[in-house]
Amino acid sequence: MLGLMQNWPLTVDKILDHARNWHGDREIVTRSVEGPVVRTTWAGVHGRAKQLSNALKGLGVKHGDRVATLAWNTGRHLEAWYAIMGMGAVCHTLNPRLFAEQLCYIVGHAEDRIIFTDLTFVPMLAENRDKMPSVEHVVVMTDREGMKGVDLPGALCFEDLVDSGAPDFEWGGFDENMAAALCYTSGTTGNPKGVLYSHRSNFLHTLVTLGVDVMGLSAKDTVLPVVPMFHANAWGLAFSCAAAGCKLVMPGQKLDGPSVHELLETEGVTFSAAVPTVWLGLLQHLRATNGKLSTLKRVVIGGSAVPEAIVRGFRDEHGVDVTHAWGMTEMSPMGTLSAPTAKVAAMSDEDQLRYKLKQGRPPLGVEMKLEDDADKRLPHDGATFGRLLVKGPAIAGGYFKGDGGNILDAEGFFDTGDVATIDGQGYMQITDRAKDVIKSGGEWISTIEIENIAVGHPTAANAAVIGAYHPKWDERPVLLVQLKPGETATRDDYLGFLEGKIAKWWTPDDVVFVDDIPLGATGKIDKKLIRDRMKDYVLPTAKVAEKA
Ligand code: AMP
Predict the structure, then answer these.
(1) What stretch(es) of the chain map to CATH 3.30.300.30?
(2) Rounded to an integer, what distance in angstroms lies between the CA atom of residue 121 and that of residue 415?
(3) Which DSSP category does 252 fall into?
(4) Are 45 and 268 contacting, i.e. CB atoms less than 8 angstroms apart?
(5) Which residues are catalytic?
(6) Which of 116, 378, 437, 479 would bridge 370 by S-S if both were Cys, CB 3.0 to 4.6 A apart?
(7) How far is ligand 1, taken at its centre, from the CA of residue 53, in Å?
(8) Could you please report the per-residue DSSP string of 312-345?
(9) What angle do CA 204, 303, 90 make, to 5 degrees?
(10) 3-class secondary structure per residue, 451-491
(11) What proportion of the chain, given as a percentage, has pLDDT over 90?
(12) Which residues share a beta bridge with 444?
């Protein structure tokens, strides 16, 4: 027997309709790419997005066509985002931090017909335009004044395009399972693969993120998403802020400590989200300038593991609560958050910290299991490492155009490629990417755990751990440290600092001081590049073992 409730397709245009209808005067503030801070409202975004849908229709865009954005977080990017999805086309967010070659591959693979771009990326597009044969139009997100400096034949002006569109456009009206957005994985192995979100998956993900123990946003919040819309949908904030009616503060291209701090203070931001490196930059800036955070209450941090020093810095110096989150492009992206359970909330601050540093517990809509290499389920004892697999309505069931073949196991779970533990309270902790974990004498060593402790050393700017060949143990850990400018330290300083904080046999066999720890396009440590740079490195302990 079927239920008798209304059929109300879960399409994301309804999220912006809701924002216009019930939070229409809430502001969207942008540090524009041109420089000045500019303001609009949810009603303003709604009206202009409808005009833009009409203009796109005029350019021949149809249901299912891919329309790309190569853009920072701005009000205009939001308008393009909703205009594309609302009319049933697919909004393909391109990550401008990728190499031009990778971008050309992705644009070709997606068969993007139009690219919306910020002024920042016009030179790159001009240089590579002939390597993007599917692209019929490039729309530069600026006004006529901004177009004066654009050297790209045939480029369209965003403001003119919006103005050319009639105000009314009938959004939605199609199946909620239609594709809404496309985002390629960072592709650390092989070519990047496309994750194709549906309207339904984005809508459900939005409802999930609104939960108090997830993003927990309210109409009273002012939100600054530092996390880009091109990286895993700004963790859903472009949808959830509209759904909750938050004021939104878009940082544009300036993501350094001083610029982020200025916006946090001048706009009265209460909630923000970013990867750890952004927060390290902010905390360093605040210490150097004796800066304050007078309105910020909560930050969600994810993308890579949160070092203890960040949680303590926010808590002890600014009274700001940190929620650690884990997820991935394939998960829309939220997977787990470190929100306290009743039992954990009753603990002392110091005891709670142990749980805050874990990646956390899944919200409704995310199933998780831990398995060994023989697909046998592993215990949730907080100690046993295993492959982490996930299942849910906002998790990829396959990649665009079938790349990678069948990606689900017999039970319909997707292998995240992460190695994790789950403790008795249900808190998941990532110990590594499967390809980064160090296998030493048949046992596994977590590189992330060692890195997080090492980066807490007062002289460390950043730290990374990789495995190096060892004739007896197969692999042993090497700690690479990038020192803060002007600091000095020795190998023994770092080994002494780790002592007692990790198992003795996890102690790195060597410490190497390097000029930089390279980061990839999504702000994560680029271990592939580090391994490449270290390919001729030989462990001192390996030499000794070989002689013996
Ligand atoms: P992406 O799809 O680019 O967001 O990358 C997803 C991957 O980033 C995950 O599979 C993890 O390996 C890593 N990741 C994301 N969040 C965290 C976190 N909080 N701690 C450790 N690794 C993380």
Answers:
(1) 436-547
(2) 34
(3) B
(4) no
(5) 185, 330, 439, 444
(6) 378
(7) 34
(8) HIIIIIH-PEEEEEEE-GGGSSEEEE-PPPHHHH
(9) 45
(10) HHHHCCCCCEEEEEEEEEEECCCEEEEEEEEEECCCCCCCH
(11) 88
(12) 439
Query: Which CATH fold topology does 436-547 show?
Result: GMP Synthetase; Chain A, domain 3 (3.30.300)
pLDDT at 547: 66
Q: How many CB atoms are closer than 10 A to CB 536?
A: 5
Enumerate residues 6+ apart whose C-beta is below 8 A from 406.
Answer: 398
What pLDDT sits at residue 189?
A: 61
Atom of ligand 1 nearest to the CA of 522: 3
Question: Can you tell me the mean pLDDT for 306-322?
Answer: 95
Q: How far is C-alpha 293 from the chain's CA centre?
A: 23
Rounded distance, CA 214 to CA 325, Å? 9
Percentage of the residues of the chain whose pLDDT score is greater than 70: 99
Look up the CATH number of domain 8-17+36-212.
Answer: 3.40.50.12780
By alpha-carbon position, which residue is closest to atom 5 of ligand 1?
328
Distance 465 CA to ligand 1 centre (A): 17
Q: Give the span between the Cα atoms of 117 and 93, in whole angstroms.
A: 10
Measured CA to CA, the distance from residue 89 to residue 86 in angstroms comes to: 7
- Does residue 433 have a pLDDT over 90? no
Q: Cα torsion at 526, 285, 356, 412 (round to 10°)? A: -40
> CATH 3.40.50.12780: which residues of the chain?
8-17+36-212
Task: Report how far residue 108's alpha carbon sits from residue 208's, in angstroms, rounded to the nearest whole number.
Answer: 33
Contact 430 CB / ligand 1 (< 6 Å): yes
CA dihedral 202, 279, 78, 13 (to 10 degrees): 20
145-193 per-position pLDDT tens digit: 999 999 999 999 999 999 999 999 999 999 999 999 999 987 656 789 9
Mean pLDDT within 213-234:
96
The helix or strand, by DSSP H or E, that contains position 299, with its residue range, turns out to be strand 298-301
Minimal-distance CA residue to ligand 1 atom 9: 328
Burial (CB count within 10 angstroms: exposed 0-12, middle 13-18, buried 19+), residue 24:
middle
User: What is the sign of the dihedral through the CA atoms of 408, 524, 253 and 108?
Assistant: negative
Largest Cα span, the chain: 80
Would the pLDDT of 341 be above 90?
A: yes
Tell how far the Cα of 476 is from the centroid of ligand 1, in angstroms: 24
Residue nearest to atom 1 of ligand 1 (CA): 328
Ligand 1 atom 22: the closest Cα is on which residue?
Answer: 304
Instruction: Report whether residue 333 contacts ligand 1, using a CB cutoff of 6 Å.
Output: yes
| Residue type present at position 21 | N
Q: How many CB atoms within 10 Å of residue 6?
A: 5
Rounded to the nearest angstrom, the distance between the alpha carbon of 299 and the centre of ligand 1 is 17
